[in-house]
Design brief:
The complex is a heterodimer of chains A (595) and B (294).
Chain A lengths: L3 E12 L2 E13 L4 E5 L6 H8 L8 E10 L2 E2 L5 H8 L4 E4 L13 H12 L5 H14 L5 H5 L8 H13 L5 E5 L7 H18 L2 E6 L2 H7 L2 E6 L2 E7 H6 L4 H10 L14 E16 L4 E17 L3 E5 L6 H8 L7 E6 L2 E2 H8 L7 E4 L13 H12 L4 H14 L16 H13 L5 E5 L7 H18 L2 E5 L3 H7 L2 E6 L2 E7 H6 L4 H8 L40 H5 L4 E5 L2 E4 L1 H5 L1
Parallel strand pairs in A: 3-8, 3-9, 6-7, 7-8, 13-18, 13-19, 16-17, 17-18
Antiparallel strand pairs in A: 1-2, 1-4, 4-5, 9-10, 11-12, 11-14, 14-15, 19-20, 20-22, 21-22
Chain B lengths: L1 H23 L1 H18 L1 H4 L34 H37 L1 H15 L3 H12 L3 H28 L2 H9 L3 H9 L4 H24 L11 H8 L8 H28 L7
Helix pairs in contact in B: 1-12, 2-4, 2-12, 4-5, 4-7, 4-10, 4-12, 5-7, 6-7, 7-10, 8-9, 10-11, 10-12, 11-12
Classes of the chains: A alpha/beta (595), B mainly alpha (294).
Chain lengths: 595, 294
């Protein structure tokens, strides 16, 4: 008898469309102390499984039709809610949820929450003891300055800190079995790596068994011993991580693997062409007027002096942690934000001047494809009207001609013409992204900005979308700016890379060079924090410690010095100057420049 | 033709879904059925009532104050008019007034709210301060004051109600517009270069429609009640119009002796308002999944 077993579990969901099977698991066994990874895309029933184990699934609409879930030989499905609450949840099985913000009660201080849970679960523990225990646990999850964390409200903590508090809460009742439901989903790669390391350490220290749910095989390959692939509510493949990653048997596993492999990039060399976009020392500051906190007239330097040139046909990838100013930079270039300082030239024309003189006419040349196709298409418009929106603005076409253009555009992105009279909700994520791409091409733009174009669609579609983007780029002679945290995507598409940190470009150069040989310490750290399938296990995963400093009060000198492992005294005082590694490649780092 | 067929499919689907959700809640289904009957009654009143001549000033002194019987289901009033006839005709008056008042309030309130929420800044400030002024009067009192100004009649009462009602819609729509404005498709439209007004009325407004429908269907009941109240005080419908509030007002001097003069119009008001409120709940359940009962 294994530590945890599932036999023939069938869970269904009832809606107006009828009853649908959401989970059909023949067998799943987890041994004591094991780390078991469960991989599948969204909508495959991963979270349903976690909720079913804890008996937290809403029934109805959920229906647990048959099966048993054995925890140390006891069937959890036969237990009453009361028994689960008293003896299982928290004490035996704990869960870490996806979104750390929504599972901490925002009106309680962290300390209040922790002491509450501790007192409830340990009989006879008084407030003082509980406080001491809470401090110990916060130390255990490597939160520096536990006392002050206890006094804070959840919104005052960063995402990584919150997730650590959640882990501390999961630990506090001595659970032996931990269900981690995509614990790093909304976190940056650097923080993701440190959370994973922490979980691994705690697991070994307390001999916890972990069921790790993820949507991405490379995370699991770094973290887990065994892995099961969930597809269409069934487990399609199971085995040791090594075995599944190296010799996948199932078709679906192969697709998943392909999606995370860094795509070998083709030759994307650009023949010397004219400069299309010239960004000259652009700055965007936001005034923060928070009278409640008595912080009057502070400025948030979202983009702080960025310059680069982009030639026709080039693809610039912008990478960096969230909050580094990627999106603000792009919005400023697009003319959605008025810049605080600096100029942008497009095809030799001063963009901001042109916007003032000719209104929106400039926007015809520059279009954007957003990250989330579920929100970027108006749910109450027909597809034909969505795609034709730019046409309506810039050309006046008759109804027939307009429809013809729409059909052409849709054909180009691989959407059948009968889509015209449908609404966005009738399409899958990948198809919607195609529609969004069709719309972005409707005004014949010269520059298309891709803002995380593949990160919210399933792996099957991801690859196809990348192919499509490549093809369209050649066909329309497009120039692209690509924002992505997925270095695989950046590698596949771009031929130049800008690494941003706190509103500044720290490294800029040809993609090939930077991928082979990153120079700036931050670029290195960023690349190292991403788990890849080449190395299985946690050793290859390096972490970048510390939080991103606030852009309201950035550190003196080099803004990265608080987290840099090569930092010297000079870095703290003096802002680094551009150092040209070769004629196309520069870094902003004092240490590198000196050596 | 092929295209058009496909365009209908989602509509049929969403209609089916609505029916499914409605059928789950028996009470709201009942409310809907009763309301449909009331509306049908209102539309076909001239053909189904037994004494169509009684809606005017007709007097049958010999038959006054007859108790309910097979000949006169609800009895007759002080002028010998058939109360059943007048109650059914009353549905026509009340529902028409309610539709008119709510419609007028929507026409004023919704665009203002959308503009305030989408543009923000000074425009928002000006519009919202004006609505605040309107909201600082009790709606009924404001309506009474307006009727006093305009003169007593059903039309004026309806206008007065609309004027005291629109700020609620402005507030509601503004709140919605502010949240819709943050969605990506609005930003997408901005990058495309779509004009401001088109963004407000084609992108933002259609996405605020569900809560408006919910609020409007709930308000129908409230407006019927207000119309009846104003008529009861002599500020709304004038005799001999068969209006429920007016009928109660006329009947109250003979109450409780001739109870049927007040009770039947009262029951009509009660049932109609209750059904509109239940329907409002049901509509919210269909349009807003978050409030759905588990």
């Amino acid at each position: 008898m294994a530590f945890f077993e599932i036999h023939d579990l069938v869970v269904k969901h009832k809606s107006f469309e009828g009853v649908k099977t959401v989970l059909d698991i023949k067998e799943l066994k987890i041994e004591k102390g094991e780390t078991y990874g469960l991989v599948g895309e969204s909508g495959q029933g991963k979270t349903v499984l976690a909720l079913t184990i804890l008996k937290l699934l809403q029934c109805p609409p959920g229906i647990i039709e048959s099966g048993e879930i054995l925890y140390e030989g006891e069937d959890l499905l036969k237990k009453s809610q009361h028994q689960m609450q008293r003896n299982i949840r928290g004490q035996k099985i704990a869960m870490i949820f996806q979104d750390p913000m929504s599972c901490l009660n925002p009106v309680f201080r962290v300390g209040t929450t922790m002491i509450d849970v501790l007192k409830k679960n340990h009989k006879g523990m008084n407030r003082k003891k509980a406080y001491a225990e809470a401090i110990r646990l916060l130390g255990e999850v490597k939160l520096a300055d536990a006392e002050s964390i206890m006094e804070k409200y959840p919104h005052q903590l960063s995402g990584g800190q919150r997730q650590r508090v959640i882990i501390a809460l999961a630990l506090c009742c001595g659970a032996e079995f931990l269900i981690a439901d995509e614990p790093t989903r909304n976190l940056d790669v650097t923080i993701q790596a440190s959370i994973l390391k922490l979980l691994k350490e705690l697991q070994e220290k307390y001999n916890i068994t972990v069921l790790f749910i993820a949507n991405n095989l490379s995370l699991v390959s770094a973290f887990c011993d065994k892995v099961a692939i969930l597809h269409d509510s069934k487990i399609v493949e199971e085995g040791l991580v090594e075995q599944v990653v190296r010799e996948p048997k199932d078709e679906y596993t192969k697709v998943l693997l392909e999606a995370v492999h860094t795509k070998s990039q083709e030759n994307l060399d650009v023949v010397d062409t004219d400069v299309l976009l010239k960004v000259d020392n652009i700055k965007k500051y936001f005034d923060i007027n928070d009278e409640i906190k008595h912080q009057k007239h502070q400025t948030l330097k979202a983009v702080d002096g960025v310059s680069f040139e982009l030639k026709k046909g080039e693809v610039l990838g912008i990478v960096g942690e969230s909050g580094c100013g990627k999106s603000t930079l792009v919005n400023t270039i697009l003319g959605l934000f008025a810049p605080t300082d600096g100029k942008v030239f497009f095809d030799g024309v001063d963009v901001y001047d042109d916007l003032k003189k000719n209104g929106n006419a400039f926007k015809k040349n520059v279009q954007i494809v957003f990250q989330d196709p579920f929100w970027s298409l108006n749910p109450r418009w027909l597809i034909k009207d969505i795609v034709a929106e730019p046409i309506d603005v810039y050309e006046k076409l008759g109804e027939q001609e307009r429809l013809k253009r729409v059909v052409e555009l849709l054909k180009m992105v691989g959407i059948p013409e009968n889509a015209c009279y449908k609404y966005p909700h009738e399409f899958s994520g990948g198809q919607r992204q195609r529609i969004a791409i069709a719309r972005s091409l409707a005004s014949n733009p010269k520059l298309v900005v891709l803002d995380e174009p593949t990160s919210s669609i399933d792996v099957f579609s991801q690859k196809q979308i990348l192919e499509l983007l490549k093809d369209l780029k050649d066909e329309f002679h497009l120039t692209n700016i690509l924002i992505s945290h997925d270095l695989g995507v950046v590698h596949a598409l771009s031929n130049k890379i800008a690494v941003m940190y706190l509103g500044k470009i720290v490294e800029f150069g040809p993609a090939d060079e930077i991928f082979k040989n990153p120079i700036h310490p931050y670029t290195k750290a960023l690349f190292d924090a991403i788990p890849d399938l080449e190395t299985i296990g946690m050793e290859g995963l390096k972490t970048l410690e510390g939080q991103i400093p606030s852009p309201i009060n950035p550190p003196s000198g080099c803004t990265f010095h608080t987290r840099c492992n090569q930092c010297c005294e000079k870095c703290k005082e003096k802002a680094p100057e551009m150092f040209w590694v070769n004629e196309n490649h520069y870094v902003n780092c004092t240490v590198i420049a000196e050596n | 033709m092929k295209n058009i067929k496909q365009s209908l499919k989602p509509k049929i689907d969403s209609f089916k879904k609505s029916l499914y959700l409605l059928a789950k809640n028996k009470l709201s289904l009942l409310a809907l059925i009763i309301l449909v009957l009331i509306v049908l009654m209102a539309i076909f009143a001239p053909w189904i009532v037994p004494h169509p001549e009684d809606i005017a000033d007709e007097t049958h002194i010999t038959e006054k104050f007859l108790a309910p019987s097979a000949a006169y289901f609800f009895g007759t009033d002080e002028l010998g008019r058939d109360i059943f006839t007048r109650v059914i005709y009353g549905a026509r008056v009340s529902i028409w007034a309610a539709v008119l008042a709510v419609g007028l309030a929507l026409i004023i309130g919704v665009p203002l709210g959308a503009i305030a929420g989408s543009i923000g800044g000074k425009v928002d400030n000006v519009i919202m301060r004006i609505t605040d002024v309107f909201l600082s009067f009790p709606p009924l009192l404001l309506a009474i004051a307006l009727v006093a100004l305009l003169g007593s009649s059903l039309t004026n009462a309806t206008i007065a109600i609309a004027i005291s009602w629109w700020p609620w819609y402005t507030r509601l729509v503004r709140g919605q517009a502010i949240s819709v404005k943050e969605r990506k498709f609005v930003q997408a439209a901005e990058t495309i270069g779509t004009s401001r007004m088109k963004i407000i009325f084609k992108h933002i407004l259609p996405n605020t429609i569900s809560p408006i429908i919910v609020q409007a269907s709930m308000d129908m009941g409230g407006v019927i009640l207000t119309v009846a109240s104003l008529s009861f005080w002599g500020l709304g419908a004038q005799a001999p119009m068969p209006e429920w509030g007016l009928m109660i007002s006329n009947g109250q001097s003979y109450f409780p002796d001739k109870w049927w003069c007040c009770i039947f119009p009262g029951i009509a008001i009660f049932i109609t308002v209750l059904c509109f409120n239940l329907l409002g709940d049901a509509v919210r359940e269909i349009l807003d999944p978050k409030t759905r009962k588990k």
